[in-house]
Amino acid sequence: MSSAAHSITSETTPAPAEATTDRPDANRIALRALRSLLDAAAPMDLTVEGAPVHVEVERLPSAPWPARGLEGLDQSADGPLPRAVRLRCTWPGGSTELLFSVAWWQTKGAYRHLVGIKINVVSTNREILWTTVALRLRDRLNGEDVPVPASFSAWRRKDEDAEEKFRQRSMPLKLAVERAGLPLVTPWNMEAFSIRLPDGEVLPSPEEGFRRLAHLALLKLPFFLRDGEDGIEGKPPFDLAELAAANGERQGGPAAGTAVVEMVEPALRPSDDARRDGVWSMPGGVRHYKQTLDTLLSELRDRRLPEADFFALLHDRYEVTGETARQGYTNLLLHLGLVKLSGGRLELTPEGESYLEDPQPRALFEHLHATYTGFLEVLVIAKALGRMDTSSARNLLTALLDKHWRTSNQVSFRRNWLLSLAATERQGDGDALTDLGRQILADHAAEEARIRSRLDELLADRSLLGDSVVTGGDVDEDLVTAPGATTPAPPEPDASTAPSAWFDETLDLTAELAGPFVSELELPAGLLAQACAALSAGKHLLFVGPPGTGKTQLAQALAKAAASDGYCTGAFVATASADWTTFDTIGGYALQQNSTLAFRPGVFLRAVERYQWLVIDELNRADVDRAFGELMTVLSGHPIDTALLREDGRTISIGSNESHTYRVSPTFRVIATMNTWDKTSLFRLSYAVQRRFAMIHVDAPDEATYTRLLEAHARREGVAPPLPEGAIGQLTRLFSASGLLAHRTIGPAVALDMVHYMRRRQASGDGLAEAMAMYLLPQLEGLPQEPAAKVLRVLLSSLTGWTSSEAVSRLRRRYEELFPHQTFGDA
Predict the structure, then answer these.
(1) What is the C-alpha separation between 382 and 453, in angstroms, rounded?
(2) FRET partner for 777 with CA separation of 20 to 30 A, picked from 410, 452, 604, 725?
(3) Is it the case that residue 463 has pLDDT exceeding 60?
(4) CA 593 to CA 589: how far, in whole Å?
(5) What is the largest CA-CA distance in the chain?
(6) DSSP characters for 781-795?
């Protein structure tokens, strides 16, 4: 366990008082203490590593109280929120601005709305300190003085595996804190202040607590700014190279006069823990790990199999082709003790026989927990956060186990195993604990308590978690942005943490799983099941149909459904054009600001980088053979080496192995759309392209469904008034098999756009004529002469009797412009 992981205890002997395991007033006391701390902010002069720093203070207006409130707090009694404080810090040759504000955890679960203090760099919104004050108070007694620590270890980088390397980077900062005389409570934590319960008095004083935090923030600042990141005007207050050099002269031990309280923490993982860290998945889809394991064990109960025959079984039944995967699945069964290898044959052990007699999920969990680390920890995290997403799971589990896996696979495998056991349930915003998961935790109550204690420590000081901030699922609408802070841009998908099933061997997407994501679409019977089956069978998809049938919306919904089970992070949407080449899909060299050329990935590789599925709208608007080029080979499941080079000189390769610079997972898919009525006027799709896609036709709904949709959208309550019944009747006749749809199939999305416009416009038949010109006419281009004349008569008929002659004339002129080589006479 890292030395940054020590828990905080108090030297104060608590007075006899009523004790609770989770005092309900923790948030109220914490907010009271933080208010006095921020109110005590005043101009000051500090010496930061020999540099004189002058600090000016500006109090900002209070942020609005969250519309949904804060748990454990009442606006009338506890509001308003404490005013944030902006510090203007200047030193010879440089300056910066820091923002001190109250913030809270925006997550469901046990940490919801717990308040703390946060320090950000104003210009970049870079968080350099957060300590959750309320969490320190929840299980403490009245009469105690509860220390509130602040961590000063440098961020652990995601690609940093070695604990020693991390310590070497952090040691210069540690020595600087010691030289500053800031009081330590652990080797990597300073005591910012203490809070006396139950009145919330800040000790030794609010002024001293604020001074310590400001001093620590200035010491941490140069360490926490990323390469090339602004945040300091001019030069920093001290030179990092000189500080690192000073580290060579002295390696530890607190500075003279610095008090250190030794901490004792019960080890979460005893040194003699012989359990394995590396677990493996099972084929068949993330929800079916257990089912697959049970099936394989049943096969071995019926007959002993040579290892080669077992590998053949994996290939034939689950399409497992890789040697590494075959060996991994086999080793899992061996390590669990359910199978043994005897005389070159795999057979069940007595434990395997016993398990198969009653293969309950709780029994399999006990086998997993006894063999591998981390399973119980994942359940504790899910319980604490309420919703556990990929980033939260990875950050917290690796910190709890003190393991720094290079990829997120090990975390994902554990999440997926628990999902297959029904100990968790996966939703769009993360994994939630089920009744079975809670029962398992109850079976391991003592272990859960130890893990939860360590988890509280981690979540109380987020700097122990590294670069990513844990959100833990649902985020409130009331985001915490203090006045004067820079509002951060919406985050990009986390490209350093693959979703939980991204590297699974197979995709298992069902209509039942995808159904909630397409609930707003009226799809032909069986179409969703077809799409899910084709995707799960390993094919990419091409949706073909008339405009307005929801093809693009369906493609994005399928990507969202896949994301809900961890197969991707959603959809990367691009629209094809006639100009597309491999530069747009694969990528190519682009001119940089420094006038050099560097590789810039195209839409295909950008989707892969972000762990997203690629959705291409209007695929046939591009010359696909020219645009896809070598990607045709990738789409058929084979790797390629391109003629392009990365900045480090490596050839850009695309394939399924870790050796490729762009690794395409087995669960990655491309979903494209194409309109049927313009397919002859644009680029044709070659047979080679069509062979790589499953083509699914998305037809317009039948007339009854069309009418029901129109009437529902025309009549339902909303901001704009409903349409008159007469207008609804004209629209349903227009979009009927005896009307417009007899000559051109138009999807309902076009008709619904017209309904929404007419409700806003409230202009009788003139509104319908305008809606026709804006939404409908572009879909009629290319009609032959006779159908074009009939369609014009249908349009004019629907306007008769309630539309001005000027509106009718304008529409007719627009229509005739679509067909410049045709004459319509008195149609």
Answers:
(1) 15
(2) 725
(3) no
(4) 13
(5) 102
(6) TT--HHHHHHHHHHH
At position 555, the amino acid (one-letter code) is: A
Give the Cα separation of 795 and 816 in Å (integer): 13
pLDDT tens digits, one per residue of 530-554: 999 999 999 999 999 988 899 999 9
What are the DSSP calls for 373-421, one per residue?
A: SSHHHHHHHHHHHSSB-HHHHHHHHHHHHT---SSSHHHHHHHHHHHHT
- Identity at 291, one-letter amino acid code: Q
Residues 6+ apart with CB under 8 A from 519: none
Sign of CA dihedral 619, 623, 627, 632: positive
pLDDT at 54 over 80: yes
Tell me the three state secondary structure of residue 315.
Answer: helix
Contact 137, 29 (CB under 8 A): yes
CA 144 – CA 744 distance, rounded (Å): 79
Q: What is the pLDDT of residues 555-610, one digit of tens each?
A: 999 999 999 888 999 999 999 999 999 999 999 998 887 778 889 999 999 999 99
Residue 98, beta-bridge partner list: 87, 121
Nearest to 563 by CA among 669, 652, 461: 669
Predicted local confidence at residue 248, as pLDDT: 56
Count CB atoms within 10 A of the CB of residue 307. 14
Question: Could you give the C-alpha distances from 286 to 279, 295, 562, in angstroms and in order?
Answer: 14, 15, 11
Which distant-in-sequence residues (6+ apart) come within 8 Å of 627 by Cβ? 576, 580, 581, 582, 584, 585
Distance between CA atoms of 529 and 521, rounded to whole angstroms? Answer: 14
Tokens of 360: 């309950």
Distance CA 567, CA 560 (A): 10
To 5 degrees, how large is the angle CA 366–CA 369–CA 372?
Answer: 145
* Sequential DSSP letters for 146-197: EEEEEE-PPPPPTT---HHHHHHHHHHHHHHHHHTTPPEEETTEEEEEEEET
Task: Give DSSP secondary structure letters for 478-532.
Answer: S----TTSPPPPPPPP-TTS--TTTT-SS----HHHHGGGGTTS---TTHHHHHH
User: Which helix H or strand E contains 141, and what residues bound it?
Assistant: none
Say if residues 228 and 250 touch (Cβ distance below 8 Å): no
Is 486:174 a contact under the CB 8 Å cutoff? no
- State residue 68's pLDDT score: 78
- C-alpha to C-alpha distances, 496 to 382, 405, 464, 493, nearest whole angstrom: 21, 12, 18, 9
* pLDDT tens column, 491-501: 444 444 688 88
Q: pLDDT digit string (tens) for 663-678?
A: 999 999 999 999 876 5
CA gap 486, 469 in Å, rounded? 17
CA dihedral defined by 367, 371, 373, 374, rounded to 10 degrees?
-20
* pLDDT above 90 coverage of the chain, percent: 57
Euclidean distance between CA atoms 544 and 678, whole angstroms = 11
Can you give the pTM of this predicted structure? 0.69
Please name the amino acid found at residue 741: L
C-alpha dihedral (218, 223, 227, 230), degrees to nearest 10: -10
CA end-to-end distance (rounded Å), the chain: 84
